[in-house]
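Sequence dictates fold. Next comes a concrete instance:
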Amino acid sequence: MTDALAQDILTRAMAAGVTITTAESCTGGMVAVAITDIAGSSTIFERGVVTYSNAAKVDLLGVRPATLEAHGAVSEEVAAEMAEGARARAGADLAVSVSGIAGPGGSEHKPEGRVCFGLATAKGTRTETVEFGALGRAEVRAAATRHALTLLLAALP
């Protein structure tokens, strides 16, 4: 399924002349891999950044330490700043970000399977949280990757 989504993203982004970047935490680069597995992706894919630690989110994407302190890494606020920072630093038209708890573990307030997404465009940034549930680490990461690709596809003209 990710192959078909990535191919559709490539086709539509090329037709529209749109460039894409990714900022990933819990998916560890899986969104970027899905896109760059498709031949010709270099025409639309600028770069992908894996910012697993809070320090990396701050250093590479410009996420504000105050945002991390107030909301935690798994939050829509941080996902928004990740997407905005990636888009600005890459000079891309569209950026998607992913930050979540793939598991095992989590807490009462931030359970395993909670993933926050950001989507930044020239028109602004939107965020959402999806509760995938305790599916296991590999399946949460796969589901988050598919969801991020779906967000990118929906944002393309």
